[in-house]
Amino acid sequence: xxxxxxxxxxxxxxxxxxxxxxxxxxxxxxxxxxxxxxxxxxxxxxxxxxxxxxxxxxxxxxxxxxxxxxxxxxxxxxxxxxxxxxxxxxxxxxxxxxxxxxxxxxxxxxxxxxxxxxxxxxxxxxxxxxxxxxxxxxxxxxxxxxxxxxxxxxxxxxxxxxxxxxxxxxxxxxxxxxxxxxxxxxxxxxxxxxxxxxxxxxxxxxxxxxxxxxxxxxxxxxxxxxxxxxxxxxxxxxxxxxxxxxxxxxxxxxxxxxxxxxxxxxxxxxxxxxxxxxxxxxxxxxxxxxxxxxxxxxxxxxxxxxxxxxxxxxxxxxxxxxxxxxxxxxxxxxxx
Amino acid sequence: xxxxxxxxxxxxxxxxxxxxxxxxxxxxxxxxxxxxxxxxxxxxxxxxxxxxxxxxxxxxxxxxxxxxxxxxxxxxxxxxxxxxxxxxxxxxxxxxxxxxxxxxxxxxxxxxxxxxxxxxxxxxxxxxxxxxxxxxxxxxxxxxxxxxxxxxxxxxxxxxxxxxxxxxxxxxxxxxxxxxxxxxxxxxxxxxxxxxxxxxxxxxxxxxxxxxxxxxxxxxxxxxxxxxxxxxxxxxxxxxxxxxxxxxxxxxxxxxxxxxxxxxxxxxxxxxxxxxxxxxxxxxxxxxxxxxxxxxxxxxxxxxxxxxxxxxxxxxxxxxxxxxxxxxxxxxxxxx
DNA sequence: TGTAGATGGCAACGATGAAGGACATTTCAA
DNA sequence: TTGAAATGTCCTTCATCGTTGCCATCTACA
Lengths: 336, 336
Description:
Chains A, B: This is LacI family transcriptional regulator. Chains A, B: Keywords: DNA-binding, Transcription, Transcription regulation. Chains A, B: One of its GO terms (molecular function) is transcription cis-regulatory region binding. Chains A, B: Residues 2-56 form the HTH lacI-type domain. Two copies of one chain form a homodimer. By secondary structure, chain A is an alpha/beta fold. Chain A folds into three domains: 4-47, lambda repressor-like DNA-binding domains (434 Repressor (Amino-terminal Domain), Orthogonal Bundle); 60-157 and 292-321, Response regulator (Rossmann fold); 159-290, Rossmann fold, CATH 3.40.50.2300. In chain A, 44% of the residues lie in helices and 14% in strands. The first copy, chain A, has helices at 4-11, 15-23, 30-43, 49-56, 74-87, 103-113, 127-136, 159-172, 188-203, 220-233, 246-258, 292-308; strands at residues 61-66, 91-96, 118-121, 140-143, 154-157, 178-181, 213-214, 240-243, 268-270, 287-289, 317-320, 323-325. In chain A, the strands form three sheets. In chain A, strands 2-1-3-4-5-11 form a six-stranded parallel sheet, with helices on both faces. In chain A, strands 7-6-8-9 form a four-stranded parallel sheet, with helices on both faces. A two-stranded antiparallel sheet of chain A has the order 10-12. In chain A, α7 links the parallel β3 (118-121) and β4. The relative contact order of chain A is 0.12. Chains A and B meet through α4, α5, β2, α6 and α11 of A and α4, α5, β2, α6 and α11 of B. Chain B binds a DNA duplex through α2 and α4.
């Protein structure tokens, strides 16, 4: 590969002149400019971003840490991040922890060594994890999940509202005895969706049977297993099941189906997330849309801002508003 | 951030001694080693990978270029790549072209400037694109798709066989009049799956009605629209539809459903890819598994090898064998 | 002589590693 | 036994990777 030195020799100018032409950082006469640009073309020169990064202490690269790229929630988010990054000539280093929590530290160290300009993290739910991030001193934005009392840069959605939308829809459809299949209560989204469910039920004057509120994980298996558990433990089945996320709903429907229970004829099932292909699911899933693509875009834009500021500015929390998507899993309603 | 210089001052040794300790590249007495490691801990020193890369001319970073991360075929592939990369302390820069073909060139330039050690490309189907890649001089491995006559490093699957598995299954289920919903014939996988379909039909002594062979794209809309087209143009519907990929099958089933045609009761539909959630689809989709996760892993391992070799070694083509996955979309068969 | 305009010189950035120096130890002829 | 030469051990010095940008220099003109 040709270097700036080669260009300067070829064009018979100094290194600084070449640099000035490339970065347009100083006036260079048309005459010399031409000689330089000609040489660049002739030698097919490409600037070495590594050298430049070393000098400028900025890599135009960010790290994205995600729990599980296989979860359909993430690809749109990553696409959103990448789209914005691309527009700003940034690159995205993808870190997929595969739900192995201890990978986070390793990735953080790698990102530090690689001198990324910033970090986007979609899986930070505990203060311990947050501490590790803070220790790196890197600029960062959290997405979707956040630790308790976290009030710094963040992009997420209104989880309480997402449950309310779900409950309201179920109530409107005439269901009263409604179960909740939740996630890991260590995660704020799971907590908020759960409490949103409970408070909204109460607002409607409906009982929440503790036996019908399940903890679990954001996974298909969790939904499936909780159905099994419910079928064994509960005498009277609920009329509807409100789930913490679409993948859980997938598991729930599979579990019900395996037990010969029809959705929505026997039990209605509500998703939350509106992940890709929910529309084409066994039973087209009614859900609550979070636009993870939008979350990705906004978080990258926010990070870019944070990176640009020399002085730390006021932190920003962007909370998106979810929206109801009615399909068939809670009774047919072809209007939407 | 502390630098090696800080360490060398603190430990009162030379820079090279610090380097030697860090890289274990030369003998250093236990005494000095301790002084150095102590200083490293005390100052919380992390090597600067950018500086190291500049000197060593290797970044331990690879670029992955993919057409559309939203296509469920890719996330497992990316996960496979990332898993292997992680094990070797490599980082993955994700480039998602979003099916905008001209993004490829931009990404290639970016990757060149960023001095990646290699490239993994999952969307290269034309010789023109290949030329661009070759021009970069970067080491690379192609995944899944390849240009005509390409005989260099490659990881893919036996596409002909995947169609044969599909046709054999359909024939075994008793279907004779079978349509083929294909992809873009500029892409080898689409061509091979198509010709695999045709030749296997002929082997079975079955007619291939040209009116029942559709071109298209690897997308849901393509399947949907081709169904519409078929319903308008064809008097006698086929008994079964063999598709070029699961996403196309998703579109097909949606199209049939919207037209009031039941799957598999009225028409059987066969996928190809076995993408995530096909199992939980409207109609659990019979498909052919390609293990894109495995493809990702193998391609990254191959690339790592290619990077390690100083002399270009013999090129390797790894062709995986697909396997049939029977579910319900071609008539119930709960055996598998 | 002063000043503005156009270009070049050079020291960084943070690491690596070849070459060489200081010192201790071994070898060997006288 | 002795001293010089040879060998070996452990560490340091220094040039280098490809850029950037401050500062110096040089020219031209008022």
